[in-house]
UniProtKB/TrEMBL annotation:
Residues in the signal sequence: 1-19
Keywords assigned by UniProt, alphabetized: Disulfide bond, EGF-like domain, Repeat, Signal
The EGF-like domain, residue ranges: 71-105
Alphabetical list of Gene3D superfamilies matching this protein: Laminin
PROSITE patterns associated with the record: EGF_1, EGF_2, EGF_3
Protein name: Sig2-like protein
Cysteines engaged in disulfide bonds, as pairs: C95-C104
Amino acid sequence: MTMNLLAASLALVVGYSQASCPNSCSGHGTCGVDEVCTCYPGWGMNGAPGGDCSERFCPFELSWVDNPTKDGERHRYAECSDKGTCDRLNGNCVCFPGYEGKACDRQSCPGDCSGHGTCEYMKDLEYGTVYNEYYDGSSVALSGLGAGGKSFNMGLWDEDRARACVCDPGWTGLECNKRMCPYGNDVMDVIPGFDEHSSIGLPGYGNEVAQVQTVTLYDADLNNLNFDGKSFAIRFTSKLNETFVTQPIMWDTDDDVLAEYIATALKKLPNKVIDDVDVNVESGSNVAGVVIDVAFTGAAVQGKQHKLEILQDPCDDGCSPRITGLTNIRTFSDTTLSTVEISTIGSHNSFECGRRGKCDQKTGMCLCFSGFTGDTCNILTALK
């Protein structure tokens, strides 16, 4: 009788212990003396620790948007970054449209940039089309020359999460799905301050002023001897954001010879992207350093142009174009900085299709209005 009671008691104890935690913690946790499961990492139930440990947690990251605390704390860690739902069977986030990543922690780019661009993080987005448009030599702490891009680096909480398309040359739009059309001068426009037209037969024709960019190079040697026998190159960016780099330009101490070298190199760029240019070089006792004036006189480069970029760093074996570079050029922490600046504002303007036609964004060709023709609708077919 005593043995039977003992066996029955043991059976009750075993049964009680087996039933003490729900579903025996589903094999994903341990059962405590308080009949509460302690789940293994990544397991829980209904999005909370404990329960029967039958469901998975999903990755946590900073919330895209949430209610701030009374102390102003925001962007706390949240499952799927509050931009997706958690599939508790496999622990994977199902992100809302426009978001992706293990924890829905980054934005996706619209249309994957349509195959005509790259999807970049905010911190990697560069400002200014070319280097010298944001490093103008106005401060001794900034370099006036160069070719490297500069990104925001503003320390924003989402700088490595928010993304946008950076379109390939010739493409534009949020999705990079629209072709750019060529830019040209509005031949009927009168430029304020110039009172001139650019078309034959209209008042002021023949008195136009070309844009002039002035490159000032300061050598650490007062006589610019460090430049002698060296080579450099120039990068030009078109209105379609195409970049072109000249052949190596050999430095010559004769101003006229150097001017001819520079002009020839610019006019040899592919596709006649610079169809004509005038270059003047001045050095010696009358000026500080070497002053290079580049006037954009061609029909393909009318109006405002992106600033030229001087490639002055050495580019050795395996690099193109192969140049020695301009040694000891003053571009940083010197009171006199080498710069590229627009010294003369041209009388021409620059608009897509010359503002005398509409851009067919499927083909990248201008559909000119009646009375106008040409790639940029810059040719009159009849006098008004």
